[in-house]
TrEMBL record:
Coiled coil: none annotated. This is Sulfotransferase family protein. Residues 451-476 are annotated as: Disordered. SUPFAM superfamilies: P-loop containing nucleoside triphosphate hydrolases. Residues 461-475 have a biased composition (Pro residues). It comes from Ideonella dechloratans. InterPro entries: P-loop_NTPase (IPR027417). Gene3D superfamilies: P-loop containing nucleotide triphosphate hydrolases (3.40.50.300).
Length: 777
């Protein structure tokens, strides 16, 4: 039996330096009883073994293949064996299990280096622009690259055991001697002076930065992937031209804050589950601007001249482009116009026609982010959009036109979306200069932002009139807006919206408004129902059907309206969403936290300010109901985490839970929410349903299956309605059943498919299924 150490990455944590050291010293290490196997190696690292771990051959019988047998033979008789590839961690649960089967009988320890999220993403982005055809901005890369590091640790800890995973922070202040090699040696017990080994005298795998990185990003929009990847050596040589061409890149405070918020839950889990002393997220990254417009012209000429002198392929690609006048951006005017280099004969045959005198679609496409283009192609209605274009623009690509010109002109990308309305009502999007349709698709709908049909041009939001001054000696007449102003020190995002929901109680005749709100109890006859279910679980369908059956969810004009991905509407109050977001933020959590502290959330019911806001909103919702309505309901997927708070604020609160297969939810989250892995979606499903567990055993809280609601809607809801003390005539049932349409479901599982689920998720799913009220059909 051997003591095996498997170094699994991450990438961009000094892996190249470490692997080069191990490869250069393979024989010297073997003389000390340490085997760094040749089997499975590609260059200095075991990338070949990593690829094999994710193959059907490894799934079938890990020890039977030539790759595995060669490795086991080389390990034979060696007391210590080290394996290293940053690709190991990317193989996920499948690769980890196959490796465990291969190394069965040996003592295995996993070593994983992690890096602060912003620095990790920045270095990863620089490497990808340098070594591939990636051409998007760093902001887009951050938006579309979702990689919770705790998931990596959880996967390998699950397979090999929590105690067999060594987590280290790749930070000069945390590493032994500020050096990843010295740190690794300390972790694996390689003692003595490392001077007895050979080590490369130069930096491994340095990142390019500054205007050289920006130039490569521009060229990537034109280069085939293979050509873009072949320029790494040229870029390494060119990075010596200026210090600013290598090293870290500059990242501003706005994007740094976005990344910090995105990975807040990940940091908590790394601290809580693994005891990792994670650093405070940086407010920005120092480094070279990408681009540095002030020096871009000079750097362009410097790089182009050096590349030509050395005969680099990069010089030929740079000949395809010319920089224009950059003075409006703080740069230089550039050179006088010169003739365009002649087209290569072998390329002439590929050109169907000469470019138009006006800017051609291809030129505009070079300025459009490929990630934005890809997303908009899925949603922009080309025929509808072309109908808005003049005759001379009919031949242009509608997606490129909208991204480069159309949005600025106020054109609408689809019948369901008004460009002008979105920019009018969402000033932050307008002021940031973001494309409105892209912002809505990528962020806005997930944030619950309103969108309007094409052609809608709402007036700008009016400035609230100042509150009238009180007339002494009468008590102050404080409106909901005034109360919000008094409470602004809480910095709650949903505060103003919550107060606006109290317009039906415009005046609070008290000198101590907070105490007045607390003292006035909720109406004793009020009945409340919380619709509980995770995101993408069918809560909107359930809410729409209940509304048709006579349950009050609020005035239509106060509910979150239809969106392109949910044309029937969400039946959610923005005020409630804001309050729930604020609750989770105060509890150090968020809706996508897979390990929320439920006790902290529920304890916030003792916060006088939060309780006042909740009561004001509940009272306003109750007073808005039509005469004769006996049950008022509210819905927000965040209620899975915040229901305990609302139960404390509203003791007679009932619940109704809708349950959907965890894999269908995870797939829907990945398709609609931008999550990169089913694993993260499954972890969220488990967290939400653990949080709802106290509600599952209550007799007054029915649990229904989303699949039953689709297959037998009336048989599923009839007993629920009876339990809630409601009756509905045939006309109401007709309206409710009309909402059940197959087209509303985008991520269904075959009825006979029993997809493999992680053990914890499978157990939770079985428990919840057992609690469901199944229809008698």
């Amino acid at each position: 039996m051997s003591d095996v150490v498997v170094h699994i990455g991450l990438n961009k944590t000094g892996t190249s330096s470490l692997q080069d050291f191990l490869a250069l010293n393979t024989d010297a290490l073997r003389a000390e009883g340490i085997c760094y196997p040749h089997a499975g190696r590609e260059g200095a690292a075991h990338h070949g073994l990593s690829t094999w771990l994710g193959s059907p051959e490894a799934d079938a019988d890990p020890s039977a293949s030539p790759v595995a047998q060669a490795l086991l033979d080389e390990m034979q008789g060696m007391p210590r064996v080290w394996l290293s590839s940053e690709d190991f961690h990317a193989q996920g649960l499948r690769g980890a299990r196959n490796l465990a089967r291969l190394l069965q009988g040996h003592s295995v320890r996993i070593v994983l280096y992690l890096r602060e999220h912003l620095a990790y993403l920045a270095s990863w982005y620089q490497q990808n622009v340098q070594a591939s055809a990636l051409s998007c901005s760093f902001a887009s890369f951050c938006h579309f690259t979702h990689k919770p590091l705790s998931e990596v640790a959880d996967t390998w800890g699950q397979v090999f055991g929590h105690g067999q995973l060594t987590l280290r922070l790749y930070d000069r202040r945390s590493l032994v001697g500020g050096d990843v090699l010295l740190d690794f040696a300390a972790q694996v017990g390689l003692g003595g002076d490392l001077g007895r080994f050979v080590r490369k005298p130069y930096e491994n795998n340095p990142s390019i930065s500054g205007n050289l990185l920006f130039i490569k990003r521009l060229l990537n929009t034109l280069l085939p992937a293979a050509d873009a990847a072949a320029m790494v050596g040229e870029l390494m040589e060119l990075s010596k031209l200026r210090p600013g061409f290598r090293g870290a890149m500059q990242v501003g405070p706005e994007l740094a804050a976005h990344v910090a918020r995105t990975y807040a839950a990940d940091r908590r889990q790394l601290r809580q589950r693994w005891g990792l002393d994670w650093p405070v997220p940086p407010t920005e990254l120092a480094g070279s601007p990408v681009p540095d417009v002030a020096t871009l012209h000079g750097d362009w000429q410097r790089v182009q001249a050096a590349a030509r002198k050395k005969g680099f392929a990069l010089a030929q690609t740079m000949d395809w482009l010319r920089l224009g006048d950059l003075r409006a951006l703080g740069g230089e005017a550039g050179e006088a116009p010169v003739s365009i280099p002649p087209i290569r004969p072998e390329a002439a045959a590929d050109i169907a026609s000469p470019p138009a005198p006006s800017p051609a679609p291809a030129a505009a496409a070079a300025n459009a982010d490929p990630i934005m283009v890809e997303l908009l192609r899925e949603h922009l209605d080309s025929a509808f959009y072309r109908a808005q274009l003049p005759a001379e623009a009919q031949g242009l690509d509608p997606v490129i036109h909208y991204l480069t010109r159309g949005a600025e002109q106020g054109l609408d990308p689809s019948p369901a979306f008004s460009t002008r309305a979105y920019l009018t009502w969402h000033a932050d999007v307008r002021e940031a200069g973001m494309n409105p349709f892209f912002h809505y698709l990528r962020h806005g709908r997930e944030e619950g932002r309103q969108a309007w049909p094409a052609g809608t041009e709402p007036e700008a939001a009016p400035t609230p009139a100042p509150a009238p001054a009180p007339e002494p000696p009468a008590a102050p007449r404080l409106s909901a807006e005034d109360l919000a102003a008094l409470l602004n020190d809480t910095a709650l995002t949903g505060q103003v919206q919550a107060m606006a929901a109290c317009a039906r109680q415009p005046e609070l005749l008290a000198t101590a408004p907070l105490q007045a709100v607390q003292a006035e109890a909720l109406p004793p006859q009020a009945r409340w129902l919380a619709l509980l279910g995770m995101h993408r679980s069918g809560t909107s369908l359930l809410a729409g059907m209940l509304q048709a059956l006579g349950v009050w969810l609020g005035p239509v004009d106060e509910l979150l309206g239809p969106q392109p991905d949910n044309p029937e509407g969400f039946f959610e109050h923005p005020a409630l969403m804001g309050l729930d977001e604020a609750l989770l933020e105060q509890a150090g959590s968020a809706w996508d936290d897979t390990a929320p502290d439920m006790a902290r959330v529920t304890a916030l019911a003792g916060d006088a300010v939060l309780q006042a806001q909740a009561r004001l909103w509940l009272r306003g919702l109750w007073r808005s109901r039509p005469e004769g309505t006996v049950l008022t309901a509210f819905k927000d997927p965040r209620l899975c985490y915040t229901a305990g708070f609302w139960q404390a604020c509203c003791p007679p609160l009932q619940g109704l839970i809708v349950l959907r297969h965890p894999l269908a939810v995870a797939r829907s989250l990945r398709a609609r929410g931008g999550y990169s892995s089913l694993r993260h979606g499954l972890a969220l499903w488990a967290a939400h349903h653990r949080a709802l567990a106290p509600w599952r055993g209550r007799a007054d809280v029915p649990v229904i299956l989303h699949s039953d609601l689709l297959a037998a809607p009336r048989a599923t809801l009839a007993p629920v309605l009876a339990a809630l003390g409601l009756q509905a005539d045939e006309s109401r049932w007709t309206q409710a059943l009309a909402q059940v349409r197959p087209g509303r479901v985008h991520q269904n599982l075959a009825t006979d498919a029993q997809a493999a689920l992680p053990d914890e998720v499978a157990a939770l799913w079985a428990d919840w299924q057992a609690a469901a009220w199944r229809p008698a059909i």
